[in-house]
Amino acid sequence: MLSISVCALAYAVFSFAKEPVRRDTESASLPPQSVFVDPRSIAVLGPNGTFRENAFDSGFNPTGTEPPFFQIFDHRFLKVLGHAPSITEIASNSTFAFAHEAPIYDAALDSVFFASNDGGALGNSDINHNNQIGRIDLKNLPANLNGTAINIPVTELDLPDSIQMTNGGTGPFRGNLLLITSGRGPLPPSIALVNPRSPHNATVLLDNFFGRQFNSLNDIKIHPSGKIFFTDVVYGWLNHFRPAPLMPNQVYRLDPDTGAVRVVATDFDKCNGIAFTGDGKIAYIADTGATAGFLGNNQTEPATMQYPRYAFDVDPKTHVFKNRRIFAYSDSGVPDGVQVDTEGNVYAGCGDGVQVWTPAGDLLGKFFIGRVSSNMAFAGKGRLVIMAETKIFLAEIAANPSLFTS
Ligand SMILES: *[C@@H]1O[C@H](CO)[C@@H](O)[C@H](O)[C@H]1NC(C)=O
Ligand SMILES: *[C@@H]1O[C@H](CO)[C@@H](O)[C@H](O)[C@H]1NC(C)=O
Ligand SMILES: *[C@@H]1O[C@H](CO)[C@@H](O)[C@H](O)[C@H]1NC(C)=O
Ligand SMILES: *[C@@H]1O[C@H](CO)[C@@H](O)[C@H](O)[C@H]1NC(C)=O
Ligand SMILES: *[C@@H]1O[C@H](CO)[C@@H](O)[C@H](O)[C@H]1NC(C)=O
């Protein structure tokens, strides 16, 4: 039965490929490592179709293509990919989720920094053990990446004890990595500047809200105004390394020059990734409510609040987020880290890789890796580095990072 439905799908894919791709021959017109899935070809799976039961599976792959590949649902994704894209596994360690979040590209060093999983599967970190910040040097990459996996070395940074359970990062900001940490046990969550160069000294910018510790700080971005925006959520408690929460899950703004902190958005289940458009007028917030650490996953949580991602207008005077509206709902896992390109397309790390939507919220396609990606970052023009827990992938594409993307 499976083979019948796959054949039927393959037929439908090719029969529809002509018009949306607008080329003479379907397969010749597609770039390398890519598959076109016409939405009409999957709209009806039929009585014998293979239906998914769990959003936390390895993803929807109707063509059965071996990951990693580009899964195209809308011909406009070809503009993101360009004519000669590639997606390649560039680092891996099957026993260690060394590449979870906080991807930061430092152009001066041509290096990407990132944090290992804090408190989750294969993170090798818990209430008694800190997680680690690693680094890969992109100058170690061969010139012709083509999808054949390679494994470049990861260097661990030796950091001061003030950095505990890093979960997010952005920058460089004023020449430093801007890290956000979840804290560990009684040690407070914090926002800190870390020197990307040895001796990796750090300066903590914030570790409390008028005397109270945050729950476990999660993700961070710099707004074009120069202000720092960040999310606070309960995953430290849900992953057994932080006390029970003392505050709602919210989004805050820190003025790095005055030290002033204020809330800018609330009423989330679990606010997580954050990103702005290049002009700073729209904010995107991922809500990962469907995953709850020791409380488990729940894909039936209300789709209006917990699971989807939100778009907000950023008030030009107060920076409060307003006009909240649904932006997208990921079919796979939960959307976590978010980035925006120069065209305003929105990228989110999901259960099957990185999904990309237009500014209007139309799904263009996926960097399909068949496993969880919690975050990604542009590494300069036309390079996207994808964190995938025990692996890192690098995609060479046509899209470029918006000014305030990292
Ligand atoms: C579904 O499978 C049944 C049993 O094998 C078969 O009789 C039927 O024709 C199939 N239906 C379709 C639409 O392929
Ligand atoms: C892989 O991770 C383990 C920890 O689980 C570590 O001991 C080992 O050195 C790592 N391997 C490489 C090649 O980095
Ligand atoms: C990719 O490049 C590697 C190393 O140059 C080569 O061995 C491999 O055959 C290439 N694969 C493809 C699909 O071109
Ligand atoms: C690191 O130390 C140098 C030398 O004291 C200092 O100039 C720099 O500001 C420090 N960086 C951070 C992030 O603390
Ligand atoms: C999942 O969430 C729904 C809605 O909140 C709730 O009714 C249900 O009991 C939850 N299921 C589990 C297994 O916790």
Automatic annotation (TrEMBL):
SUPFAM superfamilies linked to this entry: Calcium-dependent phosphotriesterase
Taxonomy, superkingdom: Eukaryota
Stretch forming the signal peptide: 1-17
UniProt entry tagged with the keyword Protein biosynthesis: no
Keywords: Signal
Domain SMP-30/Gluconolactonase/LRE-like region: 159-382
Taxonomic lineage from the root: Eukaryota, Fungi, Dikarya, Basidiomycota, Agaricomycotina
The organism of origin for this protein: Mycena belliarum
Keyword Signal tagged: yes
InterPro entries, per the entry: 6-blade_b-propeller_TolB-like, Oryzine_lactonohydrolase, SGL
Name the UniProt record assigns to this protein: D-lactonohydrolase-like protein
